[in-house]
Amino acid sequence: MKNNEKRMENILLGLLLALLIAAAFFLLVGVNKNNFRYLISTRGIKILAIVLSGTCVAVSTLLFQTVTDSRILTPSVMGLDSMYVFLQTMTIFLFRRTLPLLTTPIPKFFITVGLMVTVSIFLQKFFTGKSKGKLLYMILIGMIVGTFLDSLSNGIQMIMDPNEFLVLQSSLFASYNRVNTTLLSIAYIIVALVFFWLRKDMRTLDVMSLGYSQSINLGLDYKKLLRKNLTIVGLLVSISTALVGPVVFLGLLTVNISKELLKTYKHKYLVVASIFMSILSLIIGQLIVEKIFNNSFPVGTVINFVGGMYLLWILLKERRIG
User: Fold this and answer.
1) Which of 45, 84, 85, 278 is the most buried (most CB within 10 A)?
2) Which chain regions cross the lipid bilayer (predicted)?
3) What is the C-alpha separation between 93 and 115, in angstroms, rounded?
């Protein structure tokens, strides 16, 4: 047991070292005495945004996979990403000219986070219960709602003014080139409070990963913990998405790689590894976009492509095993 824990700690140290090297390279490449202040300040904000969104996505995906007992599901199946696209579309379409205040960053951030969390809580209230079937029913409803919102968004985008559509497009893809520093500070405070709320749940999450029946037999209040964790998932996904845009496959990619590396059920290790892996992936993705492709497309495109390929590999692997 001690050897296994030592191995996991060494893996975490290796990930941290790789993360620090990647972050240092990202901050310092191309820096000289003439541009030092400008590049360090702008890249520092990007690093802070990457750390926040990577943490939110990693933890939310890990919690969601724990409560759903599935390695291929992400919080996006609850329709939160589709809700984000719909809210951005409706805000610009309805209020950009009549109530421009609502389209400014801070009001739009709080409106987006509030409505996305409300949707998450709504799904829990009406569709979660004391069985896995109820949880899967919630996921099914979330997917249906997501498809419906996607259709509405596409329809509205087709009749939008071209200039408004261009403004909308810039907010529909994950990007770290337009982060609002005030929102970033607010988001860090909210996420810190969420982690304070979650801090004592690592061992209960270990038990929840055993499944509903085993959790009940071991004395857990499964329904209460399920709702708490799904609320946290909704909060983290909402904050990350509202701040930088949706990154659908990042959590799927990094959480599964962390599980493969550590080969453990203990969330105190999985949470840290997933966070490190997410931040490292985002930094590498941002470097690829900036230095190789000259910012010709957002980092979310790279992450979603790699994550989508990894999802296909997982499905093919599970099929061969089955």
Assistant:
1) 278
2) 12-32, 44-64, 76-94, 106-123, 135-159, 179-198, 232-257, 269-289, 296-316
3) 17
